[in-house]
Amino acid sequence: MSEEFSKRFAQDEATCGGVGQSEGWSLECDLQLLEITPAATLVVDTFGQIFRANQRAFELLKPSGNILLGTALRDYLLADSAEAFKHFFARLRESEGVQTCEMRLKTGANDVLQVLMQAKVVPKDGGQLLVFTLNDITEWRSADPESILIEERLRHSQKMEALGRLSAGVVHDFNNILTIITGYSRIVLDELEGSPERQHLQKIAHASGRAADLVSKMLLFARGEESGCERVLNLNDRVIAFEDLFKSLVSDEIRLEALLEPNLANIRADANQIDQVLMNLAMNARDAMDGSGVLSFETSVRFIGSDRPRHLAHLTPGQYVELRVCDTGCGMTPEDAERAFRPFFSTKGVGHGTGLGLATVRSIMHECGGEVELTTAPREGSCFALLFPAADSSIDNFSESLGFVMNMECEGTHIFVVNENPEVRELIVYVMEKQGYCVTQSCPTEALDKAQQAASPFTMVVIDRNLPKPLSRELLGGLRGLHPSIKTLFLSSQRTPSIFELGSAELQKPFTSHELCYAVQDLLNT
Fold it and tell me: Omega before 145 cis (within 30°)?
């Protein structure tokens, strides 16, 4: 460590008022760690203020007056990168992994740089710090003829992320509406058993179910949510269900063919992620066929042995379920096929794709413990073979008979329903009381007062996960203080990591009365 750099660090430390010292950081230790890093490295607080940097960062950013600490990282951004950095910074604070993007910076010497920025959140003394590395790729990008295309795809990806944030806000309200339609449709269907009018209500229930699936897919595609609901399923069922959706997106000139193995083994996966894989492959096939051709789906069972090829060496030997998705489109050259699964690579023009579709397909397949193989040639179409490990268990399901749930002993069970939507509350109360449960309902702001006045202890609270976090923490903490053994059923509009403490579970909206009863009974039995 140079003496000049140490003096400059001390000068900056004094200038910014000792930023970061309250975090208990060791100046000498930090400088030694930062200086062995070859990239320009910055340690930033959650407001974007820089309070640690190595000498390479000073050399790269050339701060005015040689003062870097205490300044904000956003001060070095060019105007055309400010909005992208805002989204990147927000995504970074919400993530536990490394985030990567490209930004254009302006140094203190007025040089314009293209940098590859990578960052990660690091927990520190109960709070968070953000560690950034900056690599100057200005010369490399200027020499790369595809650089402009990559930048445009990055911007398009950021727009999709913004769309995902907007979708997340709409989904909650829309799912509340669908919950009411779906829930009461199921109730009336049970009451109209044998009635000729029942078929009309079945169509309403079916349409609301399709709307719920569409909302789920919109959120999944826009936000790229990770798997949150793995279950045993059959690929044939997913292909058949997907066929209707795809037909509505293409012209009649594209013919769909399906050759499905009748004795197909089951797999364990997230149904929504399987739908995303099918959607990505089908949309690519549609574009490759330019409006006309044949798209085929074929399922079969395939055994992967110890003599498997190198590209399948990471797979565990055993039985796999194979789904082949093939088109009669333009195909790919060997060079394009080699790069097909790389993020942001695309053979489409700017504005016609993010270049993330096939990268997402491979990521999902790896998450399932499987792999995807590509066979293609120019003017001979493309064929993607998806390999899923076979599951030993049968398809996850539950009884559609409400009478099955009614066999549950309900005496002494007191359920507290907390929801800001009175119509959703009324639906849940109706279904629970019909089962024989004692039910109390409340809006969130009055819930603790009602809990204190309750004549008998609450066995379970059914509460919306979308409540503001401070209110949710206060409410759940107060309920557990009053009723230590209370169980919690969260109602959620979005997929969340399935990590819950003992005595809690999650039910996705919209839900039917059967699904609600099943979730309540299942949680009570834990």
Answer: no
CB atoms within 10 A of CB 327: 24
Which residues are registered as beta bridge partners of 105?
77, 113
Give tens-digit pLDDT for 309-365: 888 888 888 899 999 999 999 899 888 888 888 776 666 654 455 567 788 888 889
Per-residue pLDDT band at 98 (split at 50, 70, 90)? confident
Phi and psi based region of residue 152 (left: phi greater than 0; alpha: psi -120 to 50; beta: remaining):
alpha
Q: Look-up: residue for tokens 């819950």?
A: 500
Any idea which residue has 């003992």 for tokens?
A: 502
Read off the amino acid at residue 421: N
| DSSP per position, 458-510 | -SEEEEETTS-HHHHHHHHHHHHHH-TT-EEEEEESS-------TTEEEEESS
Q: What is the pLDDT of residues 18-42, one digit of tens each?
A: 444 434 444 444 556 666 777 889 8
Q: Is 298 exposed, middle or buried (0-12, 13-18, 19+ CB in 10 A)?
A: middle
Question: In this structure, are residues 246 and 284 in contact, taking their beta carbons and an 8 Å threshold?
Answer: no
CB–CB of 105/81 below 8 Å?
A: yes
For residues 149 and 350, the answer to whether their CB atoms sit within 8 Å is yes
pLDDT at residue 305, rounded to an integer: 87
Summarised one tens digit per residue, pLDDT across range 446-500 is 999 998 888 888 999 999 888 888 888 899 999 989 988 899 999 887 655 444 5
Contacts of 234 (CB under 8 A, 6+ apart): 264, 266, 267, 395
What the block records as the tokens of 501 is 């403490």
In whole angstroms, what is the distance from residue 212 CA to residue 186 CA? 15
Q: Which residues are within 8 A (CB) of 43 and not within 5 positions of it... i.e. 6 or more apart?
A: 20, 30, 34, 50, 51, 52, 53, 129, 130, 131, 132
Rounded Cα gap, residues 248 and 256, in angstroms: 12
**Whole-number pLDDT of residue 441:** 93
* Residue length of the chain: 526
Could you tell me which residues are beta bridge partners of residue 296?
Answer: 257, 326
Helix (H) or strand (E) holding 231: strand 230-233
Residue bearing the bigger pLDDT, 154 or 147? 154
| CA 437 from centroid of its chain's CA atoms | 35
Q: Are strands 371-376 and 382-391 parallel, antiparallel or unpaired?
A: antiparallel
Comparing CA positions, the residue from 479, 469, 221, 235 lying closest to residue 361 is 221
Reported confidence tier of residue 161, pLDDT bands at 50, 70, 90: low
The C-alpha angle 501, 487, 230, rounded to 5 degrees, equals: 50
Which residue type does 243 have?
E
Average pLDDT, the chain: 78
pTM across the whole model: 0.44
Beta strands in 5-84 (DSSP E): 40-44, 50-53
Closest CA to 320 of 302, 332, 305: 302
Q: What is the dihedral of CA 136, 142, 146, 149, to 10 degrees?
A: 80
